[in-house]
Amino acid sequence: MIKQKLLLFGFGICIFAHTGISQELTEKEQAYMDSISAQNQENSTTAASQEAYNKGIELFKQKSYLMAVASFEKSIQLDNNFTAAFYNKGIAENEAKLYGEAAKTLSQLLNKDPNYSKAYFQRARAYQGSLEYTKAEVDYKKSIEIDPENPNAYYNYGTLQFLQKEYDYAIQSFTTAIEKNGNLAYAYNDRASCHRMKGDYTKAVADYEQAEKKNPNLAFVLNNIGTTKMKMKNYDGAIAAFNRAISIDQNFHLAYNNRGATQMERNKIEEALSDFEKCVQIKSDYAPGFANIAAAKFKKEDYKGAKIAADKAIQLDKSYASAYVNRGMINEMLREMNAACSDWEKAKELGSETGAQYASQNCGF
To answer: How much is the pTM?
Structure first.
């Protein structure tokens, strides 16, 4: 029995050896099998690339931009011709404020496909984020040339022109964006800001109010209405706008600060102080809020309290020229003239004309 089993086992080995696949295939058949194997490998790699890409899309939706970038990069490594992965990686890098990396990624995409029109728009965003305004302008123009019906291209180009203080050109760009899509609340808001920078407050308010109509839930638009009406000395209108902004966003520190500033103009010091204190309660590193507390307490002749607030403002922002001017005034009232002169001199160094004037009049330099 043992011999029989051994013979059967040995026979099995012989059969296996003589029926090996590679020995029975012709050269043509082997080439065909190799091509199938290569195709299967390629399909497997493509599937893995697609899987990484899909994961990147999901992470992007969750606003996990850095993780999305990593997934898109993995997708690209698996398939270097997957243009959508390059494009979405560039967008994710823009959202993560990795502007240099975004510009690089989108340039790689445009080298592969110069007609990938949306990539010019996204690369312009990247250049704008990196403060490379000339390059951004070229790409925005290219984006508009390729797709003249895209309102976003005109809108972003307008923001670039605004940053360069080209307000008339920015107004034209925002106007075109509005014409292409009348629901762009941001375009109305930003066109209003151009008018405000030009000193045309009536047009500014009109556009801000249009922005509010398009989207009544944008607290910053109401804040802009308030600050503009404040410049027009329409204090009641300003307060009403700030009230609406705060009703939308109870943690909007700027609205509290600006409402406080308006109350100061109305000589309602206690109301102003309450707003300034609420502002810094919400945002404890907001130097102007502390500077305004100092101003309100100065008005109340609480000079020691004012000094504490001014010290905090300067601690938070050592280049805050106005805070040095105000602390100098507080020190003067506390009869600390050396400290006052030191503050005014510092304000002068930081470019404050008021600081220079006070230093000249009171300190002899």
So the answer is: 0.80
